[in-house]
């Protein structure tokens, strides 16, 4: 196949598989995002082998997740987001600490080396903002109080996860560089603060782009620049790109009608976001689970990952009442990109065995598959109660 | 720089440069597309060297041009397109034959090998649908009679150019395979016919996707599938992917309001299309023109390329009257992707010298830069006359 044909064929196949399995999931009342992940597992190298993931797939997945978070930021009401900031800043650290501790203790108890145990704990810290946001958006509860707390906490949690990542990657090199950790922490906090508060104010003061730009759809052009620009800035200070694009969306949320951003952003998101979830699915190798002991430990590790978030985040959100605390705990369960990054780093540094690497991917998939069901049940009950 | 940062940084830099120089061009009343090409020249490896084009840049440019043609197809009224099909099918072959002959004779006369001369002639055949469509769209004359003829002829012309490409690539391998040429011709004609006539009818008979699909924005999802699917199909039968996406847009043109395609497609197009033009600019090496004789011959070759299309296409469109024939001739001048593909192929096969390769890129850039000015003048005059 010629390179051009190959590129377009892969994009077509990934998108078609995502849409077909997404449609089937929707009919089974399962969030479409799971169909998209399943599509990736199916067509990926470990099942049918129709696609060998490479640079193209990684890049389109990256741009897809960046735009998904931009669109989610755009849908978020910043005022309400800040209103739940207090609860979220209690939910996130508790929900990070418990899985970290739980993962470490389980692995240490099953006689894995200390460094491997620390890596596993670190991998469990993150809540996947992308999957969480998509689930909440699919369920239509992103603007409910619990939904806003989950999203705000997931963003804070991502920062914590990346700080933990910085620590364990120092550990893998043999020494714990506290100065680097300190600088990175300061940068991350300064970045989020600046982008969230001043970005919004700067955008609010800007005159309508149509009055001073000749480019067609100037508002959308500026929005794309801000989205890409803040994503780059986020990676420069050592954070995930999606933190930047989410903050860009948040800064523009109050201008989305005036600047004509809603449907155009939705167009880009609906084209590109499915690729992220398909690529996520393509990375799952089902073969490792035939190794003795791997599947059993993977199941226990998943339980630790689930209970760690459920208890930790639930405790943090107890001030919202039991029902919403349960929802927040369940909403924080899914792991994603950062978990996979930590796992890959550990594997490459020789700290993690291939079996433990497989277990961490297992946790990502199971928590991603299970949480939407839990969330659906938890959110639907009250929605029905309200409807009645 | 980390790979993720590098990818997002390159996309940001390309998009920002495109928008800044596009804005400057708009203010100088030059189509923004030229600013985008200039942005590529500036930041590319032969000037500032801020970006080294690789797989990422080629892929994003490919998807960008595919979506640009899809959006253009969507804007085109298929009924009116078929109405001008007769004139266009006279314009295209004449506009292909003259530059082919002119290019060959010029190179043969200046004592270049026959095979090199044939390659140069073949490279001049194509009219760039992408650049032409963008120019017409920027000028707002895509629905005028001359605009529709140009677009229809450019599409036919692309088919001819690709047939010629098939012939010369056989020549480069030492033998002229007439059976292959025959099969390819039949496939191309069948593909365009099927997609243009039956695709439209099939879409017209389809019930609204919202009535039988649960996926969100089902119309847009189907449109993306058709766009990617026909692009892949086009490359399978040996044609440019953009022919497929253009035909997909054409098939959906009458459903664009019902299916909610307009703004969403515009969003994808406005994000991705600029990358194509930036990458086009990045490929220009200004260094080759310091070689003795290259610049002079490049200028004469450009003159041949311009006059070939102006006379050939103008003659073909003479039935529309002198003014519209001149517009059609001028609108068909810009060369683009296929010209560059032929040039690259010739270089790689050792048929073209680096100097002649540079000349062909020179033709692409100069015809792209000059045509919008010519077109602006030619279309503006009557628009003013009508306004008066």
Secondary-structure content class of chain A: mainly alpha
Question: What's the CATH architecture of the largest domain in chain A?
Answer: Up-down Bundle
**Which pair of chains forms the biggest interface, and how many residues does each contribute?**
A-B, 50 and 50 residues
Distance between the termini of chain A: 58 Å
Any overview of this molecule?
The structure is a homodimer of 388-residue chains. Chain A is an all-alpha fold. Chain A has helices at residues 3-27, 32-43, 55-75, 78-83, 85-109, 114-123, 129-139, 145-172, 178-205, 218-236, 241-252, 262-282, 294-316, 322-331, 337-348, 354-387. The first copy, chain A, has two domains: 1-21 and 28-53, no CATH class; 54-275 and 291-387, Up-down Bundle (Na+/H+ antiporter like fold). Chain A contains 16 helices and no strands. The longest helix of chain A is centred in the C-terminal third of the chain and has 34 residues, at 354-387. In chain A, 57% of the residues are buried. Chains A and B meet through α1, α3, α10 and α12 of A and α1, α3, α10 and α12 of B.
What would you say about this model in short?
With 388 residues, chain A is mainly α. The first copy, chain A, has helices at 3-27, 32-43, 55-75, 78-83, 85-109, 114-123, 129-139, 145-172, 178-205, 218-236, 241-252, 262-282, 294-316, 322-331, 337-348, 354-387. Chain A is globular.
Characteristics:
mainly alpha, 2 domains, Na+/H+ antiporter like fold, 16 helices, disordered C terminus, homodimer, 388 residues
């Amino acid at each position: 196949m010629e390179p051009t044909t190959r590129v377009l064929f892969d994009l077509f196949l990934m998108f078609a598989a995502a849409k077909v399995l997404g449609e089937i999931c929707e009919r089974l009342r399962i969030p479409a995002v799971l169909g998209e992940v399943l599509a990736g597992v199916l067509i990926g190298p470990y099942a049918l082998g129709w696609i060998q993931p490479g640079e193209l797939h990684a890049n389109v997945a990256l741009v897809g997740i960046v735009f998904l978070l931009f669109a989610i930021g755009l849908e978020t009401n910043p005022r309400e987001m800040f209103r739940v900031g207090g609860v979220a800043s209690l939910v996130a650290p508790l929900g990070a600490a418990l899985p970290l501790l739980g993962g470490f203790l389980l692995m240490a108890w099953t006689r894995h080396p200390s460094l491997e145990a620390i890596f596993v704990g670190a991998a469990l810290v993150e809540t996947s903002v992308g999957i969480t946001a998509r689930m909440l958006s699919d369920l239509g509860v992103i603007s409910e109080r619990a939904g806003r707390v989950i999203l705000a906490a997931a963003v804070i949690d991502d920062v914590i996860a990346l700080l933990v990542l910085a620590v364990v990657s120092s550990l893998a090199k043999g020494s714990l560089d506290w100065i680097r950790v300190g600088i990175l922490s300061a940068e991350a906090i300064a970045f989020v603060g600046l982008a969230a508060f001043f970005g919004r104010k700067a955008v609010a003061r800007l005159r309508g782009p149509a009055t001073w730009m000749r480019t067609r759809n100037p508002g959308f052009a500026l929005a794309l620049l801000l989205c890409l620009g803040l994503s780059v800035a986020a990676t420069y200070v050592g954070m995930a790109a999606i933190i930047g694009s989410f903050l860009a969306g948040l800064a523009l949320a109050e201008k989305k009608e005036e600047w004509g951003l809603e449907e155009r952003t939705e167009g880009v998101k609906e084209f590109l976001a499915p690729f992220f979830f398909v690529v996520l699915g393509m990375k799952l190798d089902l073969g490792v689970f035939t190794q003795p002991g791997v599947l059993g430990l993977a199941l226990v590790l998943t339980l630790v990952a689930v209970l760690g978030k459920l208890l930790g985040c639930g405790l943090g959100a107890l001030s919202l009442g039991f029902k919403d605390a349960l929802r927040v705990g369940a909403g924080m369960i899914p792991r994603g990109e950062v978990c996979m990054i930590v796992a890959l780093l550990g594997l490459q540094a020789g700290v993690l065995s291939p079996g433990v690497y497989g277990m961490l991917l297992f946790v990502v998939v199971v928590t991603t598959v299970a949480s939407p069901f839990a969330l659906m049940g938890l959110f639907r009950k009250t929605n029905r109660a309200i409807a009645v």
